[in-house]
């Protein structure tokens, strides 16, 4: 088993932490330094040096934090500061779910610093449109057991005293996981969410984000991974956006939902490493 190291990077009034695990080419995973290491396999960490870096959204809120601290540009500059602190000339950049937008923005701003871009369970549309499309996809799917499980978890959430961001995500479990009864609470143990930033990052920040324009501006190779049963960001929504990417590889994992790197870690690792090997002539 690889040994994990935690580093800290102070940016403005935020102490950003990052976990460093594994060996090989540097891969920065945008998000929580606690949550994301739990979703990537030990096998992958034997092939890549995986750095799971906090965004400001995963730093406990303090009185010094204001809405002005949460902008796309500041999040992108935080990633760049992390890269510099690691001494990495180029990085493999990984963004899962909402963090895929941050990864794309970094790749646009620092094209010479990203060798490969990995987007996992990302949506090409934002705002109310993605909620509408995801709801319709779920409603039209014939999955009575999954829908029954969702009713139970949502009722439990509405009746509980915990209305936090994490509790809400856990209540959506049947729409997020291939196993409709999967309990993701251990993945979230000890994870703190910034109360000021959460509503911005998962709310207004990317509400008008133009994925087509982002893809047109990105020059590096992109690996786009989905779970077939993702009822948050359905894979089919990407069809009319694929043409905007100059070098795009798509993989859909048949027994996964929103987190294929965990749900089908063996298949995910194999596909990702094959892609990386092919893109750099088999030399990692």
Automatic annotation (TrEMBL):
The keyword Transmembrane does not apply. GO terms for cellular component: membrane. GO terms for molecular function: hydrolase activity. Keywords: Hydrolase. Residues 31-264 form the AB hydrolase-1 domain. SUPFAM superfamilies: alpha/beta-Hydrolases. PANTHER family: AB HYDROLASE SUPERFAMILY PROTEIN YCLE, MONOACYLGLYCEROL LIPASE. This is Proline iminopeptidase. It comes from Holospora curviuscula. The lineage of its organism: Bacteria, Pseudomonadati, Pseudomonadota, Alphaproteobacteria, Holosporales.
């Amino acid at each position: 088993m690889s040994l994990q190291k935690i580093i800290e990077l102070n940016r403005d009034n935020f102490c950003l932490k990052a976990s460093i695990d594994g060996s090989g080419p540097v891969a920065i995973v945008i998000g929580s330094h606690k949550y994301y290491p739990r979703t990537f396999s030990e096998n992958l960490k034997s092939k890549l040096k995986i750095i799971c870096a906090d965004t400001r959204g995963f730093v406990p809120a303090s009185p010094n934090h204001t809405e002005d601290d949460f902008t796309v540009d500041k999040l992108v500059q935080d990633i760049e500061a992390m890269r510099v602190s690691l001494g990495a000339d180029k990085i493999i950049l990984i963004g899962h779910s909402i963090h895929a937008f941050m990864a794309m923005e970094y790749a646009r701003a620092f094209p010479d610093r990203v060798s490969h871009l990995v987007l996992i369970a990302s949506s090409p549309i934002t705002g109310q449109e993605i909620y509408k499309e995801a709801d319709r996809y779920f409603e039209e799917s014939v999955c009575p057991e999954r829908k029954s499980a969702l009713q139970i978890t949502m009722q439990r959430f509405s009746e509980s005293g915990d209305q936090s961001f994490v509790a809400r995500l856990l209540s959506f479990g049947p729409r997020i996981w291939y196993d409709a009864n999967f309990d993701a609470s251990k993945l979230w143990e000890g994870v703190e969410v910034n109360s000021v930033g959460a509503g911005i990052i998962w709310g207004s920040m990317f509400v008008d984000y133009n994925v087509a324009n982002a893809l047109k501006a990105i020059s590096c190779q992109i690996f786009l991974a989905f779970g077939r049963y993702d009822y948050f960001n359905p894979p089919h929504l990407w069809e009319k956006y694929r043409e905007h990417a100059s070098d795009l590889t798509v993989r859909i994992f048949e027994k996964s939902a929103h987190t294929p790197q965990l749900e089908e870690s063996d298949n995910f690792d194999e596909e990702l490493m094959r892609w990386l090997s092919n893109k750099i002539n088999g030399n990692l």
